């Protein structure tokens, strides 16, 4: 059953958004779902609008009319938890178009944990898996300055809000021009669902903090000059940045994991010494 308007809140746990588009209704529990909350691929959702086929939500698919468990008959979808649409766009550009129907993004409020990048990624991923009750992917990005012994690391976004990208260079030149080196780190955490183990995938790119240059990219891209290059992230075109970035290296490790998992269609990545699966 479908409708263009409904005043009923979305039945997907963790979803807080009103309906501004077509909703799909579970034929069993009568719950209303956004297209992206239905766990249907865009193609499958479009097909459901064109047919009279009854659709059941994930919870109702777990049990048949007698109460016995059944296997869900739906595509496997990973919820990429992020409030930044640029991250999902860049992730799909790196992974390739064959992954475009595997991921959907959802912005949920994640607690601000403290610890190492790995500890924070694990805690956020576990929390997201509890909220979504399904496969989730969480990313934690850090920028550590050598002069500050790796700080701010995973707390970089608070530094960015406080002083801006131009403030990073001003801060570090006080330690001397030779002390402007930094490490950009991207850590992806994947969990198959509530109570499942978390797998980590990490990539690191070394570089130097310079005065901001360039207008593309986002965040601190304008002030990060990758080692061996004359252009900052923000001066590079997407293809160049996506071939050397810390996110690219972490996604290489994630892609290898997807390759080795039978439910994910993919192609193996080229080897990289800067990408690694941590768990």
From TrEMBL:
Major enzyme class: hydrolase
Enzymatic reactions: XTP + H2O = XMP + diphosphate + H(+); dITP + H2O = dIMP + diphosphate + H(+); ITP + H2O = IMP + diphosphate + H(+); N(6)-hydroxy-dATP + H2O = N(6)-hydroxy-dAMP + diphosphate + H(+)
Positions bound to ITP: 82-87, 124, 140-141, 218-221, 241, 246-247
Binding site for Mg(2+): 112, 140
Name of the protein: Inosine triphosphate pyrophosphatase
Cofactor binding annotation: Binds 1 divalent metal cation per subunit; can use either Mg(2+) or Mn(2+).
EC number(s) from the headed UniProt entry: 3.6.1.66
């Amino acid at each position: 059953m479908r409708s263009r308007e409904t005043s009923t809140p979305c039945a997907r746990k963790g979803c807080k958004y009103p309906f501004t588009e077509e909703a799909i209704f579970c034929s069993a529990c009568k719950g209303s779902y956004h297209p992206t909350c239905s766990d249907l691929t865009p193609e499958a959702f479009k097909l459901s609008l064109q047919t009279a086929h009854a659709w059941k939500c994930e919870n109702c698919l777990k049990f048949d009319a007698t109460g016995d468990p059944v296997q869900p008959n739906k595509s496997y979808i990973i919820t990429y938890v992020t409030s930044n649409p640029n991250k999902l766009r860049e992730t799909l550009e790196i992974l390739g178009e064959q992954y475009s129907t595997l991921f959907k993004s959802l912005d949920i409020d994640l607690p601000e944990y403290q610890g190492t990048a790995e500890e924070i990624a694990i805690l956020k991923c576990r929390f997201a898996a509890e909220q979504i009750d399904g496969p989730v992917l969480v990313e934690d990005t850090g920028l550590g300055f050598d002069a500050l012994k790796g700080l701010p690391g995973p707390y970089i976004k608070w530094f960015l809000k406080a002083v801006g990208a131009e403030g990073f260079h001003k801060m570090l030149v006080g330690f001397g021009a030779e002390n402007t080196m930094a490490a950009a780190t991207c850590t992806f955490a994947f969990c198959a669902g509530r109570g499942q183990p978390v797998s980590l995938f990490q990539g690191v790119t070394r570089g130097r903090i310079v005065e901001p240059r360039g207008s593309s990219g986002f965040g601190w891209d304008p002030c990060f000059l990758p080692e061996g290059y004359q252009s900052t992230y923000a001066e590079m075109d997407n293809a160049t940045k996506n071939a050397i970035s810390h996110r690219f290296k972490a996604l290489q490790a994630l892609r290898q994991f997807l390759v080795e998992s039978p439910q994910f269609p993919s192609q193996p990545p080229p080897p990289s010494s800067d990408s690694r699966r941590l768990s």
